[in-house]
Write a structure and sequence with these properties.
261 residues, mainly alpha, 2 domains, four-stranded antiparallel β-sheet, 53% helix, disordered C terminus
């Protein structure tokens, strides 16, 4: 049976759209990543070149405990799209350090995957902006591989948005039709950067004994992309509409809460 040319054409067209969108995210990330490096160890009053006496064991333990708490708070906030408020007390801002490491590793792995798929071998070492430039230069070739094109888009979007959030850009929340299956509130919101839907009602509680919502007031019930179909069935929503809302925000951008289409 001959292959369906219409399906092939549609797939190729979608891959081209993915690479075009990826190019936009690459451009954003190339511009913002140097700012992230600048934020890694910002100057603070009283942190000049004057020498300090060495810290004792108790002070070192206290510093380590403080940094551990700060890292946990920053990561918890990131999961809910919240940027840290104020300056960190740690010598290095840990949420920035984590973002730099994540993005650096992600760009290296992405470029290696692209080069391997295109049969180019292993890319030479380079800094993040140069690697991103090399990926951008290969996007026309990437468009010939639909799965790779989608992967490049997803990774570039994820890293650019993490970079932006770390620099203080607020996360976009998109209103989702339907009611939360646990609290029956119209409080479902999609977070495009995480491709996750969550209930923003702070009083939402479920009946699952293993769910931390009963003990942790900061916990929010959430559904990843693989759970949208079940959520739609339980909430009276539409899984395809949720995906469309997330993708529309990806195309248009935005920093405030958006209403459902």
């Amino acid at each position: 049976m001959a292959p369906d040319r219409s399906v092939s054409t549609m797939t190729s067209g979608l891959a081209a759209q993915h690479t075009a969108r990826a190019a936009r995210w690459i451009d954003i990330l190339r511009r913002q990543f140097p700012e992230l490096l600048h934020e890694l160890a910002p100057g603070r009053p009283g942190t000049g070149t004057r020498s300090r006496p060495p810290l004792g064991p108790a002070a070192l333990r206290a510093l380590g405990e403080r940094d551990t708490v700060e890292r946990a708070e920053a990561l918890l906030g990131e999961r809910h799209g919240l940027a840290p408020l104020g300056e960190s007390a740690a010598p290095i801002r840990l949420h920035v350090s984590d973002a730099v490491r994540d993005i650096t590793d992600g760009v290296v792995e992405l470029e290696e995957a692209v080069w391997e798929k295109l049969g180019l071998g292993r890319p030479p070492r380079a800094d993040v902006p140069r690697r991103l430039g090399r990926i951008a230069a290969l996007l026309d070739d990437v468009a010939g591989h639909p799965l790779l094109a989608r992967h490049v888009l997803d990774e570039c979007r994820r890293m650019a948005r993490r970079c932006g959030r770390t620099l203080g850009d607020p996360e976009t929340l998109v209103r989702v039709n339907g009611r939360c299956p646990w609290c029956d509130s119209v409080s479902l919101r999609a977070m495009p950067a995480w491709r996750t839907v969550l209930c923003v009602n702070p009083g939402c509680r479920c009946v699952d004994e293993e769910c931390p919502c009963a003990d942790n007031t900061a916990h929010r019930h959430s559904w990843t992309e693989t759970g949208w179909a079940q959520l739609a069935a339980d909430a009276g929503a539409d899984a395809d509409e949720i995906a469309a809302l997330v993708d529309d925000v990806d195309e248009c951008g935005g920093t405030a809460e958006a209403g459902a289409a």
